[in-house]
Design a protein that fits this description.
alpha+beta, 5 helices, 37% helix
Amino acid sequence: MSDLDTIDLAILKALQQNGRITNAELAQKVGLSPSACSRRHDLLERSGVISGYHARLSQKALDYRMIAIVHISLSGQFAKTLSEFETAVKKCPNVLVCYLMSGEYDYILRVAAKDLADYERIHRDWLSALPHVVKINSSFALREVIERANVGL
């Protein structure tokens, strides 16, 4: 982050607001020529500061109306145990986010489900079948208050 100058930060802010902005519009917004802006943009991608682009889909519009926060405890935190769990959890299409944690639980997941019956299916067919799981604790989000797609720059 320390290698980024004010123009780099302006490019990143603009791209966070609109990832589909044209290079000409981006250049104008940050005060560069289109060729200079394109070079900076490419460098930000190659260096890994920009890790990708995606369309943000509405879970509600796709009929995923339930979010579960799932705390997982494993039988141990050996490298092989963690690796096997992580390989398996990546295959579950309803797991939106998975974090390895410090503290009481080994992992926290955010899981999308259509309804309670769908979550029961996900729990039975996917979560309970994950290797080395000894405890699953699920909580259900009542309402989303905020979800930021952007990092504060």
